[in-house]
Amino acid sequence: LLISSALRLALERDELVLHYQPRVNLSTGKISGVEALVRWQHPELGLLPPLRFIPIAEETGMIEAVGEWVLKAACRQMRQWRDSGLALESVAVNLAARQFSRPDFSERIADLLEECGLEARYLELELTESMVMREPERVVQVLRELKSMGATVAIDDFGTGYSSLSYLKRFPIDFLKIDRSFIADIPDDVDDVAITSAIIAMAKSLGLQLIAEGVETQAQSDFLRRLGCDHGQGYLFSKPVLAGEIERMLRSENTND
Ligand code: G
Ligand code: G
Ligand code: MN
Ligand code: NA
């Protein structure tokens, strides 16, 4: 409860900040998108990672207000990047189960995009497997609504939850993000290589794009590219950074052409 009221104050005092982690196209080596990751700049405790406050926000219901703040801040930032001529394809936002299960979820997204003056195609929503498996009928409907608006959807931490291959076919999903636990020990660990190869082959045959998370070495990046993985995200390319740093990276990409 203490943290919950502190978090409410944090929102009022504008203490939340977004960091952005680039996602790189493995064929071109260029930044194709960024993922927004929230932090809390606490006046006494310093910069708090999401794991220190998101689970509590989920339990107390504060996650709806936090989630709205994140969506708004990410969409505004994306609008600014586009306005300043930066060719960034998308900003991805992590959603909590409670946000996504609101009956008016897709309308909220539509209103928000309009408020921020951002076209839906620049927004990517990250859902987890458990969120889409909970009420598959409703989820199909909501995903269709989002898709018809032009937004894209990614399944985050793929492979760590209960996956049914049939839902992948049934749900209008654009991206699978392979969980970093499968990436960490490739190309050395034969089991992880087998799992990762199978995920990539399956996703490709269903027409989904792949993002490997937690790419830390050039060997992992090369291996993933050879397997046909489209994008990579991880410390090899960049840790999550402030918006200004993303802008600097994008500008230096252009001058290196
Ligand atoms: O940035 P970091 O690696 O510490 O993120 C840890 C976890 O916090 C990730 O699993 C990420 O999905 C989650 N997270 C980061 N930002 C948000 C957010 O804005 N909303 C929600 N629901 N989760 C987030
Ligand atoms: O669950 P989600 O994918 O949203 O979590 C993103 C989290 O992964 C962030 O906390 C981010 O800091 C972390 N992360 C990003 N790249 C790497 C990486 O290359 N290695 C490791 N170990 N963690 C990473
Ligand atoms: Mn994520
Ligand atoms: Na993830």
UniProtKB/TrEMBL annotation:
Domain EAL: 1-254
Protein name (Swiss-Prot/TrEMBL): Diguanylate cyclase (GGDEF)-like protein/PAS domain S-box-containing protein
